[in-house]
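User: As part of a screening pipeline, I want to sanity-check one entry by hand. Below is the sequence and the SMILES for nicotinamide-adenine-dinucleotide. Please return the complex as structure tokens so I can compare it with the automated output.
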Amino acid sequence: MERSAPAPLRAPAPGIGMVGYAFMGAAHSQGWRTAGRVFDLPARPVLAAVCGRDRDAVRAMADRHGWAATETDWRDLIARDDVQVVDICTPGDSHAEIAIAALAAGKHVLCEKPLANTVEEARAMVEAARQAAGRGQVAMVGFNYRRVPALTYARTLVAEGRLGVLRHIRAAYRQDWLVDPAAPMTWRLRRDRAGSGALGDLGAHLVDLAQYLAGEELTGVSALTETFVRRRPDPDTGARSAEVTVDDAALFTGRLASGALASFEATRMAAGRKNSLRIELNGEKGSLAFDLERLNELAFHDHTEPAHTAGFRRILVTEPGHPYLKAWWPPGHALGYEHTFVHQARDLLEAIATGVPVSPSFAEGLQVQRVLAAVAESAEKNAAYTPVSP
Ligand SMILES: NC(=O)c1ccc[n+]([C@@H]2O[C@H](COP(=O)([O-])OP(=O)(O)OC[C@H]3O[C@@H](n4cnc5c(N)ncnc54)[C@H](O)[C@@H]3O)[C@@H](O)[C@H]2O)c1
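Assistant: Here is the complex for your manual check:
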């Protein structure tokens, strides 16, 4: 652990205003609450107000998670003088409208992934962020898996050249909550609300991670998608069944700018897989492998070592020299999923106070959106190779 007495604060405390208060709302609340207690932040955030459309439910959430005030319209949240950072934890159909309004109102923005439901929306968000950057505002996308210390460290190893020329990325994100055909409709199964299905929900994380770890972009894809269960019971309307308008699974291959080849699998139909995210990179000089179910570990094979002793070794990424770890527990005292949101809050607040460029930026979120659009287009053309449009 780093210290007992906190370092002096260097900036005024930013007030956070969060829209959406369910799954990500709870995870982000933990991040905002904890970041200033663990890390020496330039300024400790204040949980100023949380917004949801159900007055009683949002009040109950605010009490549980320590938010000072509540709002029932996100426009009122943005207008508050005590809110400097707007944190968007709503489904994708509202990301663009809220983010653009918040940036126009002079607020910093953290927006959950995927950045938007379409490339056009994402483009408008990038333009709003570009104009806001000129006024010193920050806009970041919530690709939180970049902030698993093992994956942040994997990026360091790749950037240091420990893998040499990259040949392959192999990425899979598998869940099983749609295996049961009686599992009900949710906003995640409606194209107008979610943009796409497993592709935008899970595949977006894989695409972002692949590009982040490799330090280069995907230039084209070839894809298959499928909706295995096309109608599901609809608890909202009471209808016996409603149409599922997104994919249950997306499989695609891709080419990176360097010529490396990548494969991706995103599915909510993999029985027994709850939140299984695995990614492996193979280069001329070595390989790295990561499994979210063992997120404190990174497997590294150094191919420059003599063959008779070389092999994958397990790096326990809990040393004070590893990313983010100096502020946490002694080596071996592991971290988990929720810590990624603490790291996300910490990095955003650092960027606001210091002006260091924020990553993943809205522009990086747009690049992911372009890849998702190319995947959807390729799948419509029965896996025809489809360039990622600039
Ligand atoms: N980073 C991750 O690991 C991760 C994980 C899950 C979801 N997400 C993303 O987070 C976002 C939210 O997903 P979730 O799982 O929290 O969904 P959720 O259904 O659990 O919560 C959505 C919340 O948004 C609120 N909401 C919807 N429309 C609103 C509006 N117009 N005004 C105010 N509130 C509104 C709902 O009431 C609810 O509180 C999505 O973009 C999703 O893709 C990211």
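Points to compare against the pipeline: The radius of gyration is 21 Å. Residues 19-25, 51-53, 74, 89-92, 94, 112-113, 142, 144, 201 surround nicotinamide-adenine-dinucleotide (CB under 6 Å).
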